[in-house]
Structures are given as C-alpha cells and as structure tokens.
Amino acid sequence: MAAVFQGLGAATALSVSNSLDSRKFLVSSRKSLSERKASFLVVRSDGRVVPRSNARGRRAEQLITNAVATKPDSSAASTTSKPGHELLLFEALREGLEEEMDRDPHVCVMGEDVGHYGGSYKVTKGLADKYGDLRVLDTPIAENSFTGMGIGAAMTGLRPIIEGMNMGFLLLAFNQISNNCGMLHYTSGGQFKIPVVIRGPGGVGRQLGAEHSQRLESYFQSIPGIQMVACSTPYNAKGLMKAAIRSENPVILFEHVLLYNLKERIPDEEYICSLEEAEMVRPGEHVTILTYSRMRYHVMQAAKTLVNKGYDPEVIDIRSLKPFDLYTIGNSVKKTHRVLIVEECMRTGGIGASLTAAITENFHDYLDAPIVCLSSQDVPTPYAGTLEEWTVVQPAQIVTAVEKLCQ
Amino acid sequence: MALAHLTSSSSRSNLLKPIFAALSSTPSLRRPISSAAAGDSSTLTIETSVPFTAHQCEAPSRLVDTTPEELLTFFRNMATMRRMEIAADSLYKAKLIRGFCHLYDGQEAVAVGMEAAITKKDSIITAYRDHCTYLARGGTLLEVFSELMGRQAGCSRGKGGSMHFYKKEAGFYGGHGIVGAQVPLGCGLAFAQKYSKDGTVAFALYGDGAANQGQLFEALNIAALWDLPAILVCENNHYGMGTAEWRAAKSPAYYKRGDYAPGLKVDGMDVLAVKQACKFAKEHALKNGPIILEMDTYRYHGHSMSDPGSTYRTRDEISGVRQERDPVERVRKLVLSHDLATEKELKDMEKEIRKKVDEAIAQAKESPMPDPSELFTNVYVKGFGVEAFGPDRKEVRALLL
C-alpha cells in the first residue's frame, strides 16, 4: 500500500523563481552542501572546537558565542579567492529580505521594533532607513490586529512579511492565522490569495524562560491552507525566505533563536530553496535521521560519534514542516529501512508525531524496525540551565537511539 | 400622471414632518412619471429626520442632496434586499439552507446608503450578516441563493456558505464568521490603499457586540498612528445575539469609544442620512485618518435563524420599530410625497422584485452541488504535486496542482 509521492522538488523551485537558472541552483546547492560537510568534518576532527550549535552546559568552558565554521586547509587560500561571501544567518535572512523588497515594491515588513530599532534579532536592520516607514512598519504590541492587518493587506495584493518577535507571541494572533490566513482562499472560492510570510524565532534558547522558549510548530500544522518551513543554515535561510516571499500561499517561516549567529559562505548569485523540499545533509546507508532547525546540529554532532563507531547515518533536514517532503523521506526509508526522528518540538502532537504517522502509513512495508522519535519533553521549558538542557534532545541520546535502532 | 410640486407645505408633506423638498424643476412641467422620475436627475434636497451627533469632529449637514432616480433606486434595492432575506428565511425553514443564516432585514438602509456614497474601488468588509452588503456591491440574486444552498453557482462556489460571501472585483472582502476579526483585516485593506496611494477608503463594518473586542481598539490605534483611510462602521442593532447593548457595554456610545478618533452617530434606518455620513466619512478619512460611524439600526429577525428574536425583546418593540422607522417604508413615503411614482407603480415594482427573487431561487435550485474533487481545490494557490487521498485512503481523490 506504499504510495509514491511525487514531490515536485526542483520543478517547484523552477516555477517559484522565474529569474533563476535551474542548473545554477542545483550546482550551487551541491557545492555548498559539500562545503558544509567538509567544514563539519574538519571542525569535529579537531575535537576541541565547539560545534556550531553553541551547546551549553557540557562545553561551557569552550563556548564561543559566534560559532565560526573555519577550514584549516583554507589557510593557504585567502577567503576572497573563494566564491560566494560569508555571513551570519540573520544577515542571510536580511539579504534575502532586501533582495525581495528591491525586486517587488509590494513587499513590506511589519512587526514590533522592526523599523527604527532594526529588529530584535537584527534581521531587519537598516531596512527602515532604506525603504522608509511605509514599507518597514513598526507596529504597537498588538499581534492579533497587526497580523490581521497584514492578512487584509495581502487580500488586496500586497505581500507583507509579519514578524513575530518570538513565535510564542503568535499565539495571540492564532485566530487570524488559522481562520483568515489559512482559510480565506478556500472560503472565497479562490478569489483571494494571501501571500503573507509570518516569520520569527522560536525554540528553546539560552535560559529564556518558559514563555519565551516555546516549540509550537505543531500548533500550526493542522491549519489547512498554510505552509510551514524551518530554516537551519544561512544558505537555506536566505533561500527559504525568498521562496516564502514569492509564494502565493501563506508561509510560516520558523527560525531558531540560537541559530542566528551561524556563519556560512553562501553563493553570490541569486538562488531560492524549494519550500516543499527536504535537504539531504549527509547521505548514508544504515539509518535515516530526520531532523530540522537546531536539532540538525545536534544530529550532526552525534553523527560524527556514530561514524567513529562505524555507523553510516543518513541525515535529512526536512525543512518543510507542512507539507512533508515524503518523496525524499520515502526514498531514504526505502534505502535504509530504519528511521529516527530528532526534533525540538513537543512529544505530544509534535511534528515528529505527525511525521511518524505519515511514514508509517505510507512506507510501513519498508521499515525493519519501529520508528523512533526523539522530541523535547512535554514540559514548559525550565529556567535552570541543566534542566533546560534535558528538555531538548542531546547528541548522546541520539547516539544511543541509533545504536538501539541498528541492533 | 402626476405633477412635480414645488411647495414645501403640500398636503402630502405633513406625513413627513419636518421634511421639506425644494425642487429645481418648474411646476408647469408635466412628464409621465415612469420615464421622468426614473431618468430624472434633478436635485432634491431632503432633510434627515434625526440630526447627526458628532464626537471630535464637525457633523455634516442634515440636508442631503439626492435625485428622484436615486430615490427610486434606493427603493428598488432595499425592497429587493428585504424580499431576498424573507425568501432566505423560508428556504431555511424548508431546510434548503443549513447551518447559520443571519438575516439583515431592517438594516438595508446601511448597505444601500453606504453604496451610494462610494465607488467600487473603495473596499467594504463586514461580518457574517453579509447577504445584502454583497448584493449592494454588485452581487446577483442567483449567486446569493446558490451560495446559501451550497451550489456551484454560488459566489464562493458553494464552499463558503452564508458567512463567507466575497466579491473581489467589486471590493467586497467578506463575509467573516469570527466576531471582530474582520476589523483588523479592514484596517489592513486601508493600509494597502494608503500604500498604493489610490485615494480610496476601506469600510470595516462590525456590530455592537463586536465593539467590545480588543482587536478593534488595537487596529484603530494602529490605523490612527499610521493615518490610514479606514472607516469603522458600527452597525448598532442594539443586541449582540441575545444580549442587549446596555448589558454588554459599559459605554454604549460606540461612536465615542474611539476616544482620539472622531466619531459620528447616524440614524441607520434613514438611507439618506447613511449616504451623507459615508460621504462625509470618506472625505474625512482620506485627509485625517480613521473615523468611527455608529449606525443606529435594528434587525427584525433574531440574531440568526435559530434565534426566535423574541426572548430578549418584546414583539411590541419589534413592531414599533417596523411601524415608525422601517427604512423601506420611509423611502416609499418619500417617493410618494414627492410624486416620483404612484402607489400602484411601487406595488408593481415590488411584485416584479418578488418574481425576480423567485426566479433566482428556482435557478439556484437547479445549480448542482460542487463536485467531490472541489474538496481539495483552492486550499493552496499553487499546489505541490502531492496526491491527496480521500478519507478512506484507498482512492486518490485529487492531485493538488
């Protein structure tokens, strides 16, 4: 009964971007992929350099606030001779945003402190000076109404990007997101399109407290009519931001508080990431590890340990939380026959729970073992550092889970 | 054949004290009424029966300019709306309309008067009592009845229902079920209008029940800060479902509750007053930012078809308003007093309207139900090529493309 899902993948990317050379897109994605892979290996083989995930707790004495991915073998070549440019994730988001605002005068940004203050995570810094107060709008603290206003403006053809200072604040706008954003295209019989992008940081940060460390991607996943994506690297952050802005559907772009300072080299050319495609981070043979956002880095860290122990995990960053890229995932399951899901979402009713159900329904025959899903605990995030660490999945747990799965 | 009188104290006008009429045409002209009044664009100036009450602004004049043609159009449109709502009532009782059905009869003057003051480029957004507003914005009876019965010929292809009427090309943005949620949307429409600098305004309608929603004040704050051409119109029919306004709002002076935003209280049963207020509001909003209009109106039916409407108010009250303030009757008296048409002509018009409504219902009944594949259309704008299964997961229903 396994159904084959035809993910449109590259074709969707093509249709999303008119100005993009498809071959260029594929080439650059492969290049940066290998770059990243190489840089990971280099960092880890060093043994003492902190991984990009800014892990707290165990490596507190070696913490570097700006995780820098440097290649030891780049000492010979200077950075300028390499193609592309290096920047941090929030700068990548800003670059994507700026390029889209340049390209289309209908794009505007609204949110709290996005204008004069420059954005609470500096994603919109400098944009208000460049585009003026009508395109980069500072709103009062009224999420329900400014989300509604963004949706109303989108009904007429504007393309607002609504920033929630923290995704948890979007709960105040849930009615607008669910009823108006998600449903208007359907209930109007196709008359209105709502091309909004709702973005903001979420996830467990560094001792920010329960209300500011919410992992609520799953609250939105049942809303029909919206798409959800989660970015994890500067490369896909810029790509997904651009794709989300160009999409005619409402897109919720989940960023992560701890990933904003990731540094990476991204191509100079314009590129877009497909909104419905998952990213193959590390091909492998033994087990498929599905992850997204910050947990990707925990998984990669665990992957190094696993490689040393002789396992060959295939790591896929699912990126698209709604809809799931069951094509890529399915092909991987058919290859490895074992699935581990590592996510930061809640255990009950989380993205992992839905993904487990989706994979079981569609690829049951290909599974040699039950799907293991490692999610964060069903607790409000505690303030104490040690407790907070144990709320989310740690690399050691991932290693143990893979070992058990592969027995 | 009737004459056009000049005098202000004709015997007929004592019905309409203190209304007086000044006609610009001379008394010696005798034209057959049906062609005259219908094409007559000579100005009539009529005084509204109740003065406007203003908050933080100057009230507009009580004297409203209109033409015989316009008055007859008002009568025709309001009578059509009245007939449509009564027909919807019968259809609901016949179980052809299901779910929720919120009827607008009694409040027609607001929809018609507003439409007379604006263009199709201005936007209107309202809540779920939207059948007549949709009609005023250019919808057809067939589309209304088909959508109410869930058929393909409906304005939302049968997928919206009574509370989700939309007409994008006429600037009608719905049709919303959640109380108050349409007001931020309306301010967003105004924002887009300001962004594209096209000199139009957005009317966001809500009821006295919705006036207590926080998001309304949030949206008003933002609209006032950003100087948006938003006009918030409170259709105060004095009851939020079963709760009277004095039991729900500490301050039932809804036009004043904008505080820093100017407001105007209007007799919502007088179509000319509504027209004047909306015209004033449009000019005001384009220059000075948001303004609140409170339309003092009344609904004869209950909140919806499941509400008899008499448990929280007396039948005497309902019939009292119907006697004294009915908007359609008011225009009928105006038309008769100014000899724009005879009783018989108006009755014939109503008969014709009734026939049109019945025809539309018959035609709507013939329209088919939506195809099962329509379940999955319009969820997304551009699909992602994923196969969508029907509920039993055995059969592919649609390819989401």
Automatic annotation (TrEMBL), chain A:
One GO cellular component term: chloroplast
EC number in record: 1.2.4.1
Positions of the Transketolase-like pyrimidine-binding domain: 87-262
Pfam family, one: Transketolase_C
Localization annotation: Plastid, Chloroplast
Catalytic activity: N(6)-[(R)-lipoyl]-L-lysyl-[protein] + pyruvate + H(+) = N(6)-[(R)-S(8)-acetyldihydrolipoyl]-L-lysyl-[protein] + CO2
PANTHER family reported for this sequence: PYRUVATE DEHYDROGENASE E1 COMPONENT BETA SUBUNIT, PYRUVATE DEHYDROGENASE E1 COMPONENT SUBUNIT BETA
Task of the protein: The pyruvate dehydrogenase complex catalyzes the overall conversion of pyruvate to acetyl-CoA and CO(2). It contains multiple copies of three enzymatic components: pyruvate dehydrogenase (E1), dihydrolipoamide acetyltransferase (E2) and lipoamide dehydrogenase (E3).
UniProt-recorded name of the protein: pyruvate dehydrogenase (acetyl-transferring)
Record organism: Juglans regia (English walnut)
Automatic annotation (TrEMBL), chain B:
Pfam families: E1_dh
EC number, UniProt record: 1.2.4.1
Cofactor: thiamine diphosphate
Keyword Oxidoreductase attached: yes
GO molecular function, one term: pyruvate dehydrogenase (acetyl-transferring) activity
BP-aspect Gene Ontology terms: pyruvate decarboxylation to acetyl-CoA
Enzyme class: oxidoreductase
Chemical reaction(s) catalysed: N(6)-[(R)-lipoyl]-L-lysyl-[protein] + pyruvate + H(+) = N(6)-[(R)-S(8)-acetyldihydrolipoyl]-L-lysyl-[protein] + CO2
Region annotated Disordered, chain positions: 304-324
Compositional bias annotation for Basic and acidic residues: 313-324
InterPro entries: DH_E1, PDH_E1_Alpha_Subunit, Pyrv_DH_E1_asu_subgrp-y, THDP-binding
Location of the Dehydrogenase E1 component domain: 77-372
Keyword Oxidoreductase appears in the UniProt entry: yes
UniProt keyword list: Oxidoreductase, Pyruvate, Thiamine pyrophosphate
Highest taxon, organism lineage: Eukaryota
Subunit relationships: Tetramer of 2 alpha and 2 beta subunits.
Function: The pyruvate dehydrogenase complex catalyzes the overall conversion of pyruvate to acetyl-CoA and CO(2). It contains multiple copies of three enzymatic components: pyruvate dehydrogenase (E1), dihydrolipoamide acetyltransferase (E2) and lipoamide dehydrogenase (E3).
Name by which UniProt lists this protein: Pyruvate dehydrogenase E1 component subunit alpha
Gene source species: Juglans regia (English walnut)
Lineage: Eukaryota, Viridiplantae, Streptophyta, Embryophyta, Tracheophyta
